[in-house]
Design brief:
alpha/beta; Arc Repressor Mutant, subunit A; three-stranded antiparallel sheet; 16 helices; 17 strands
């Protein structure tokens, strides 16, 4: 039977100083000064409209992503968060994350961000190599990356995520592991370590860079996993590692097929409607100027996730987690009996790609490595 899951909030800031050639997110270069005040006003109004979808639930987490959210001032986030707190109950231990660029201009704002109640910082390091950062089109260098971590600590952040990529243009195994070793040396609470992929509608897709050979990519993955196993971080998702108790609450809610409101240009949301026994996807107007002008309705799309689509939608998220999912969670989040996917699960267990412990289903080590093959069984 369908039940109301936990609720989170995603806030999208669509501007950045320069769009990276690998980025396929809804981000736009700030040619002039960003309309910070007008945009926060629009976000507040958007949130008020989203409250009808909250079903009076407390927000368990807030994630401010982009774009480059650290382009905005601390005062802008203080205004936004105060508005949200007045309109919605917040969990007592709410996690509030801000994505930040390691550049000097943003780092000097960190103390102000922390004072607003933002308690988790996600730094887009990507690499500590000046040469690789140039190839990736980043506007910071390796020294600024290091300094940003130190400034974040000095600013009072006790929960920091470092975003780090591997499989970069012409990257050898030694260089990729050196990046990872430097990151671990800063003892972050959370690490997102993932391979560069070439996505459609990006500069790299039109002009692909020389990526490492497959055997080098496998070497990097194996060597990196060995290094991480010797660290205090533990893998809990395909590309996420964390200290005990420091897993990203916001991303965990995504991966467990929880509900989340989305505000901001191009923001996506997903919410459950018990009265209709429906699971609904939403998307906001993508272009910032359209979003700012459309005061009456900023929704670009509202659509139900059909009964047929729900199992795969759930599994695309839940099987990313090392812990997998319970049959009870599958049934409460999709509104479908576990028997809907029972035959495929049994086949994958017999193939040693999935495993069952009591009522919990998760991938084996082999299944985790070949997750796409696992998911294909549910198409």
């Amino acid at each position: 039977m369908l039940e109301l899951p936990p609720l989170s909030l995603y806030v999208h800031i669509p501007w950045c100083v320069r769009k990276c050639p690998y980025c396929d997110f809804n981000s736009h270069e700030a040619k002039t000064t960003v309309p910070e005040n007008d945009y926060v006003t629009a976000l507040c109004d958007d949130f008020d409209h989203e409250m009808d979808r909250s079903e009076a639930r407390s927000l368990q987490s807030i994630f401010i992503g982009g774009g480059t959210p650290s382009l905005f001032s601390a005062a802008a986030y203080e205004r936004l968060l105060n508005h949200i707190q007045k309109r919605s109950p917040l969990a007592t231990d709410i996690e509030i994350t801000l994505e930040a660029n390691p550049g000097t201009a943003e780092a000097i704002k960190f103390r102000g961000f922390r004072a607003t109640g933002i308690n988790r910082l996600s730094l887009g390091i990507q690499s500590f190599s000046d040469l690789q950062l140039q190839k990736l089109g980043r506007i910071h260098d390796g020294n600024q990356a290091r300094m940003s971590i130190e400034i974040a600590r000095q600013s009072g952040f006790e929960n920091i995520n470092l975003d780090l990529m591997h499989g970069l243009p012409d990257q050898e195994t030694e260089a990729a592991i050196e990046d990872l070793d430097i990151a671990l040396g800063y003892q972050p609470e959370h690490l997102s370590w993932y391979q560069l992929t070439i996505e459609p509608n990006t500069v790299f897709y039109r002009r692909p860079p020389p990526l490492p050979r497959e055997e080098i990519l496998n070497e990097i993955q194996d060597a990196g996993e060995r290094l991480l196993q010797d660290s205090s971080l533990r893998r809990y998702e395909v590309s996420a590692y964390a200290l005990a108790g420091r897993q990203s609450a916001h991303n965990l809610n995504y991966w467990q097929f929880g509900d989340y409101l989305g505000i901001g240009a191009g923001a996506h949301g997903k919410h459950t409607q018990l009265k209709r026994a429906a699971v609904v996807r939403t998307r906001k107007l993508k272009q910032p100027d359209h979003y700012l002008r459309s005061e009456l309705n900023r929704d670009a799309e509202i659509c139900d996730i059909s009964m047929k689509e729900r199992p795969l939608e759930f599994l695309l998220n839940a099987l990313r987690l090392k812990q997998g999912f319970t049959t009870a969670v599958f049934e409460s989040r999709t509104g479908l009996p576990f028997s809907t996917i029972g035959k495929q699960v049994e086949y994958l267990i017999s193939s040693q790609l999935l495993q069952r412990e009591a009522d919990r289903i998760s991938t084996t080590d082999k299944g985790f490595r070949f997750l796409n093959s696992v998911l294909e069984e549910f198409l």
